[in-house]
Amino acid sequence: MQEAKGHIWLTREDARARVLEASRFSPRVERIAVAQSVGRVCAADVASRQSLPNAPSSRWDGVAVRYDDFAAGMPDTSGWREGREYAFSNTGIGIRGDYDTVVRIEEVSFDAEGRISFAAAPAQRGALVMPVGATLEEGEPLARTGQTITPELAALLAGGGWAEVDVYARPRVAFIPSGNELVDAGRELPLGKNVETNSLMAAAKLRAWGAEPLVRPIVADDVGLLVEALCEAVEDCDIVILNGGSSKGTDDCAVPAIERVARVLCHAVLMGPGAHTSLSVTSEGVPVIGLSGPSGGAECTIDWYVKPLVDRYFGLGFNEPPKVRARLLAALDLSQRSSGSKVKMAVRCLLARSSDGFVAAPMGVLPESLRLQYRGGNAFVFASGVGFALGEEAEAELRYPYAFPPRAEGLFDDLESHALVL
Amino acid sequence: MQEAKGHIWLTREDARARVLEASRFSPRVERIAVAQSVGRVCAADVASRQSLPNAPSSRWDGVAVRYDDFAAGMPDTSGWREGREYAFSNTGIGIRGDYDTVVRIEEVSFDAEGRISFAAAPAQRGALVMPVGATLEEGEPLARTGQTITPELAALLAGGGWAEVDVYARPRVAFIPSGNELVDAGRELPLGKNVETNSLMAAAKLRAWGAEPLVRPIVADDVGLLVEALCEAVEDCDIVILNGGSSKGTDDCAVPAIERVARVLCHAVLMGPGAHTSLSVTSEGVPVIGLSGPSGGAECTIDWYVKPLVDRYFGLGFNEPPKVRARLLAALDLSQRSSGSKVKMAVRCLLARSSDGFVAAPMGVLPESLRLQYRGGNAFVFASGVGFALGEEAEAELRYPYAFPPRAEGLFDDLESHALVL
């Protein structure tokens, strides 16, 4: 691992805090159809524009009556007529203003001449009538600024009388793949070249986070070309990702290019995979992330450093990923690593719930079926020093999107090893 | 609650099991671009078509050499020429077939005449060379049938040489809103009418589950019209949802209409909200769900009965939702409910992690800010009999999508009550 002179290394936590602090966003607001709003973030508090029901409504299929007609006991209904002393009322439908009480249809009968009679008088005024606003009251808060719109919330907004809603426009996130070795996915791969696949992963994640990915063409390892691509991106994007070019060796173009357009907060981070990630901010406050090239690093570092920036664009605070104590089902042996390295390793694990807490197994010791099913794992365990012994407790950090871990029972019956040498 | 004669009531679990067992799906397969495949479900096992790297590649920026030239110690390199005894090699790029070893550029220097010299000989043959397949081996399994494609997996498929992938076509799910009281969202709401919002909620959920929602026009409470809509839907859909028309009273049209096109497995379920949900299957095996009308019921019942059917279309087994024991932060008082009811209530709660396990508070006792933030809750507690006392332990079932619960510390400082009367 190259530790060039004058290069700033920060812990993952410090790096994240620094870039969040230094970035400045000007979120745009747009008005969109509520029906298209699921997954978007409210740009204003929303209150209901109407009450539901908007008129006293029947709670049951029956007939609507005036309670006063029953106040002195069961009245003589032989002369009653529909539309005068009573009216049919169906569940959920408003009753006419001059009625105030509903009798269930089951308690109503009609004789051969169509004359109504009641098995029982209504117990009280307003029986089986849903008052205005029983479901939703005009002015009732429905959503707050910064709230992500779920399917349920979208339906509620529509129920509150809103056809459109103000949301934050998707932040524009440039993704610039770089590297002489790269070829676009889907094209024939020449010998000695590699497929550019990170843009696919990044675009899908960014979309899921509510951002608009703008994937640029692959740029060769040339500082001039990179600076050109970066200058264009920082002009019209909220966040810029330069992927690759930050690997081992002296031909490293990413940081020299980024230095020409932004202030470097750190050249690398003390956490692998993806230690060769740089974080910078332009004078306008646009964050420029020099994302690690190898896909294993890119997958993790985009979650660690870019997701919090997207959230911040939406005005959301940073929440630490959930952490739990977990018993390790395999040793993590770091004795082979160079002892001088200060870089901690985030080891991907499958975290599961056991009867008395949590257990975690590094992905590398799992049988193929589990490695495929839980590819990349659902949590990290952080290894430094000599690592961990089998059965030792460690802190496990959930991987985004923070799903509830599966049950451990029976899951780990076929471990391939009880130690992982890193 | 209407318990009509001859009506079949099942527990939620039995109802779900019966409809899963009786439904028959013929999932279609389609080939789509890997770049568009995130969220879709693999219809075949996928193995890598290529090895990565596809040629021995440099692990570092440096020069590629032949190890044999160093076997007898440091050679005289004064006559060496680029492209003959050595060639520049960059990280991740294939080295020419006649070289086998890489020396870091940091250990190489050139004199004024451009003659190369090495600070140290390579330690072994193949040093700093990544062999073919070190990242990915041809034939290596990448995904299994039934696996949902994540951003990471899509990138991996592209890396494995796949531009397209076979996925299951989205199941077609008809959603038929019904009820005389309903008006399309976004239109002016006449007095005494209600907004149809469930289709919006259902369509968004179905899309998130990988299905294609087909929302039909609102149908009036008329058995003939409903039968017509159902006949059309069962013809060309994999799953049919009839929403509403299954509420209180005798004017209930949903079940009589469904009975004309499908065999009713149950007319209602012993679980609220949404007890008035019917489950049926046509002779062709198409499930027809008579989904509860009120939005609170519809939100829950679509998760309970429709989500497992969508999963089953994809060939996936049913997984019970995660359940944990949780200490209740408010009493659940059911003493006011009619004692004869066998219907259990699923009470929406905010479930959180405390230092020694889980705690849960019913949404109804939370302050407005939390009710808005966690609208609908993240878990259910099932109340029957007289309910639960404050501090009692209950089983909490996570609500889909089964997110890891937040930390309890400080979250529940402002409860509005310590009892919820149901």
UniProtKB/TrEMBL annotation, chains A, B:
UniProt keyword list: Magnesium, Metal-binding, Molybdenum, Molybdenum cofactor biosynthesis, Transferase
UniProt cross-references to SUPFAM superfamilies, sorted A to Z: MoeA N-terminal region -like, Molybdenum cofactor biosynthesis proteins
Gene Ontology molecular functions: metal ion binding; molybdopterin molybdotransferase activity
Gene3D superfamilies reported in the protein's UniProt record: MoaB/Mog-like domain, MoeA, C-terminal, domain IV, Molybdopterin biosynthesis moea protein, domain 2, Molybdopterin biosynthesis moea protein, domain 3
Residue ranges occupied by any MoaB/Mog domain in the UniProt entry: 174-312
Annotated catalysed reactions: adenylyl-molybdopterin + molybdate = Mo-molybdopterin + AMP + H(+)
Class of this enzyme: transferase
Recorded metabolic or biological pathway in which this protein acts: Cofactor biosynthesis; molybdopterin biosynthesis
Stored PANTHER family: MOLYBDOPTERIN BIOSYNTHESIS PROTEIN, MOLYBDOPTERIN MOLYBDENUMTRANSFERASE
UniProt name for this protein: Molybdopterin molybdenumtransferase
Species this protein is from: Gordonibacter massiliensis (ex Traore et al. 2017)
